[in-house]
Amino acid sequence: MNTENPFFNPHYSTPHETPPFDQIRLEDYEPAFMEGMKRDKAFIDSIVKNPEEPTFDNTVAVTVEDDMLERVSKVFFCLLSSNTSDELDALAQRMAPLLTEHANDILFNREYFMRVKAVVDNHRVLTPEEEMLLKNVYDGFHRAGADLPPEQQEQLRAMNMELSALTLQFSQNKREDTNAFILHLTDKTQIEGLPDTAIDAAANAARERGLEGWVITLQAPSYGPFMTYARDRELRRQLYIAKNTICIHPDDEHNNEDIVRRIVDLRRRRAQLLGYDTYADYVLEHRMARNRQGVEQLLDQLLEAYMPAAQAEIADVEQTARRIEGDDFKMQPWDFSYYSHKLKMERYNIDAEMLRPYFELDRVKEGVFGLATKLYGITFERRTDIPVYHPEVEAFEVKDADGSYLAVLYTDFHPRASKQSGAWMTSFKDQWISKRDGNSRPHVSLVMNFTRPTPTRPALLTLGEVETFLHEFGHALHAIFANTRFASLSGTNVYWDFVELPSQLMENFATRPEWLATFARHYQSGEPLPAELVERIVASNNFHAAGEFLPA
Description:
The protein has 552 residues and is an alpha+beta fold.
């Protein structure tokens, strides 16, 4: 055993056996991956070579005692999205083909598949959970091509290998190209119209880069306010063009155009080899729409229902722009947010900056956690003794209503160069129940890209960021409350359409006055969010809602 490599220890000496981020080194990953794949192969071989007749218990439900490959993969790929480095990216490119080939070896293992098929054809009475596991395992083999002839499986192997490399490269290119662009401003006239919070953040971004003036980036907390408030139309155009041409610059090392074309072609060929007309049909098979015709029907219904209203909304903004700028003004895409905001202010006298002082991040966090306490009885305790993967990350022990341990929750709120854009929930460990481990509880992570604090202001969120927090927190609750026997059915490992239900429920609280009253206070004066502003928030909820339902 490699005693210096923490991944070789099946039981971490940390609270709730959380990943020992303070001990993990870059050089620990590759040996752990290799050993994990070796152990995984031996485990599969033990199932295949079992002389007993295949049963649900000895073929499908059997689990490895220490899934080393799962442990190292969870940590590695979570950090690849949230706190990567050039070295981690390079390692991912080296490991991706090996991991894909390992997965191919399992999914194309004919003997393994035939044992699973034998269980499908003849098994004991199963519980509903066992039935779902059996269905998922068999379906996973079938949709991977386990029942195809060897020559077609070899074609799939090659496609899977190439797709793995291409999708990884696409993601890395997108992050690198996003980080590569900055709009460096040095003249005060260039920041006219921006609210103080945006100016403060831009000045801070410049200081961090050793520059004078202000820096605007393509990260959402920087890009969004500039497009909404900046008076300089030419700068809005430059920023808009930069945002909408990420990874499509000719002869640029981060250009993704050929990668996208190749991914589309490989997905099409792969789906057709598996017996589907299109990749869309393959993906949609187990989703509510069922097939591409279902999606097209829904899109047609949305277009019919919302297109007239959306066109009216656009016309309203264009009219507003001409009223301000003159009848010969021709609105461009980089103008829409700016003049839409003007119209919203005229109609409702409400915008993100009016609300931002009342949504200080620590208070919002208290409000979200408090909402979970009120709804579900669970509580959150900050744990500074749980190792984290970045100084900005916080770890919380989640306790059930009876005080028992329920989960660990990590929060990672702010953008940085090492993080992908967007917001998501993931997990470093899923939940499961076994005779050996009992109820092994999950380690869940919330990753966001919210407005940063500055030397003069704490992190102040927009209402949209509060909604995002609630949305992703709904996903986290889905994982936190998991109580299943099998990890592969735990938390958000459910049908795709159901994944979004808890998040949709939670985000609806964002404009509930009774919830806002529990935490929304001015970060300086402590005054509660005025009822008048809450009423304006509610009244403006459907402003330009039609356009949100139309396909991009």
